[in-house]
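Batch manifest line 266
LIGAND: S-adenosylmethionine
JOB: complex structure
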Amino acid sequence: MNCNDYYDQHNEDKRFELDVFKLEYYRTLDIIERFIPERKCVIYDIAGGTGHYFRYLIEQGHNVTMCDLSPRHVEIARNRYPEKKNRIFTGDARNLPELESNSADVVLNLGAMYHLPDPEDRLDANNESWRLLKPGGMLFNSYCIRNATAYVEGIQDDMYADPGFLLMFKAIRKKGTAPFDKIMQYFYFHTLDEIKKDLKASNFNGYFKIIGIESIGGAVKSFAEKLDNEAEKEKLFNFIRICEEDEALMGFNSHVMGISVKKIKS
Ligand SMILES: C[S@@+](CC[C@H](N)C(=O)[O-])C[C@H]1O[C@@H](n2cnc3c(N)ncnc32)[C@H](O)[C@@H]1O
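JOB STATUS: finished
ARTIFACT:
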């Protein structure tokens, strides 16, 4: 399974225009901004896609470098931000020799875990992020969560009685992926226990927390419209923040964020 085949055929660049993904985008920024240090940071965005978070974080004054496995995405980002071209390159989150050890305040891995079904690959990616971080630095990993398709396609897209959807949903619940499905064969959906196990097995050890990205926000009526109005968005996010770490509600998420800290034993 090579996810470049998927991204060569699908328009990932426009994904955030769709309601659920727009909520994912704004909530991801909300989480990052609340948890990163209150100073200008060195940030590596290592599955940066076409550069949406890259652009935003540069505008906030951070020193950001991005890479992505997909040559197509890297080309889009380089063409869009020509003045930042030398900060955008093709790279694999599991092995990034281009980047120095102990050099980043923050590493974002907002995508590679969706495409790494093998725990050994996820361990390599987590340990590579650990290498890049300064002591005390933070890793933000996003994951597709096992019941995501139930919530997004089954409920929000009204597909719950469609036989094809049901087959796909059952397969993902059982194995984390659906090899027969033309889209889902490229994605891996985690259980919460898997995420915890991965992070405990990595050099990050026990120093992590897990936060729901969309959480109950997607169930709020006309949630997407509220994202266009700053005051309404803030009210919605205040509501979500109350229960964003509640394990009982994790199934409401399409994505969850694992935030890990590089602790050095003294
Ligand atoms: C769903 S997109 C998300 C992109 C971006 N972070 C965002 O949220 O808009 C997932 C991205 O992860 C990239 N990716 C997948 N496996 C990767 C890997 N091993 N190393 C680096 N990037 C990877 C894909 O090429 C794709 O651009």
